[in-house]
Amino acid sequence: MFSRFSMAVVRPPARNFADGLTTVALGVPNVDLALTQHAAYCTALVRNGCTLVQLPPDERYPDSTFVEDTALILPGSGAILTRPGAPTRAGEVHAIRDALMPFFSNAEQIVAPGTLDAGDVCEVGAHAFIGVSHRTNTEGARQLSAWFARHNVSAKTIDIRGIRGILHLKSGVTALDEQRLIVVDALYDHPEFRLFKRIRSPRGEEYAANCVRVNDILFVAHGYPQTQQVLRALGYRLEVLDMSEFAKMDGGLSCLSLRF
Ligand code: CIR
Fold first, then answer.
1. pLDDT of amino acid 113
2. Is residue 255 flagged as an active site residue?
3. What does the domain layout of the chain look like in residue ranges?
4. pLDDT value at residue 156
5. Tens digits of per-residue pLDDT, 197-209?
6. Which CATH architecture has domain 7-166+243-259?
7. Which among 246, 255, 258, 259 is the best mutation to test ligand 1's pocket, defined by most ligand atoms within 8 Å of the CB?
8. Torsion of CA 227, 38, 250, 220, to 10 degrees
9. Mean pLDDT computed over 188-204
């Protein structure tokens, strides 16, 4: 059984969304279209069983729509606030702490000199992979591993610093269910992933490896037909969402919500 979610924290992009960080050259995002896509994403969460905690847009933090990076939640068990690796994103955590307080009053916190973006954390069953990236350092990964251990979740680190085109670990690998991963070519043969059922993300469709399981449905990005075909053939039911404007800012489906 995959963890079932009944809540999701979301935050629409602010008007200055295009001032956020990006490593890709896909053009400047259209904020109005991003808002429309975000609204469709929220509707899909609700349709699939989630009640939303909606935070207001915050222009102080142009990347603040990517709420996933600011906390890690083990549904029914606990939460830990991160210490984002990009200085411009550090302050995003405060509003997330306040939003999670009614549900996780004992939330812990990654502390200096650790840094961690939760987009670097891929959970599969009672195991987690923690990416060491240009955002998450080894100390952040160590603190999170210790927290996971206290919650009976085993963890292994995966160094992605040398892999081009992958900002966060979950840009390249996500869990489709409790046992199976979708993995991009560059990570597919990593020894840590060989222990799990894997499917290879079709070449040229790497962006679509960032899927999100929401209860009985898998959210996948629009525009990646081979990925959809592979997933449908395996029996997954899909919710296809247009992510074009978020992709321009290095964001994928998982980044837009904190689910629990
Ligand atoms: C950033 O560079 O931090 C944002 N523009 C994108 C964050 C995407 N988050 C994620 O993959 N979990």
1. 98
2. yes
3. 7-166+243-259
4. 98
5. 999 999 999 999 9
6. 5-stranded Propeller (3.75)
7. 255
8. -10
9. 96
Counting atoms of ligand 1 from 1, which one is nearest the CA of 84?
A: 3
Answer yes or no: are the C-beta atoms of 238 and 230 closer than 8 Å. Answer: no
Residue 163 DSSP one-character state: -
In angstroms, the first-to-last Cα distance of the chain is 15
Distance of CA 250 from the midpoint of ligand 1 (Å): 5
Q: 31, 69, 116, 170: which to mutate for ligand 1, most atoms within 8 A of CB?
A: 69
pLDDT for position 85? 98
Q: How far is the CA of 66 from the centre of ligand 1 (A)?
A: 6
Active site residue 127: no
Looking at the DSSP bridge assignments, the partners of residue 80 are 72, 108
Average pLDDT, whole number, for the chain? 97
Q: Is 182 exposed, middle or buried (0-12, 13-18, 19+ CB in 10 A)?
A: buried
Q: How confident is the model at residue 76 (pLDDT cuts 50, 70, 90)?
A: confident
Give the distance (Å) from ligand 1 centre to CA of residue 256: 9
Residue 3, pLDDT score:
80
The phi, psi pair for 40, rounded to 5°, reads -65, -40
What is the CA(92)–ligand 1 centre distance, in A?
12
Given the structure tokens 């602010």, which residue do they identify? Answer: 14
Cis peptide before 29 (omega within 30 of 0): no
Name the catalytic one among 168, 190, 211, 222: 168
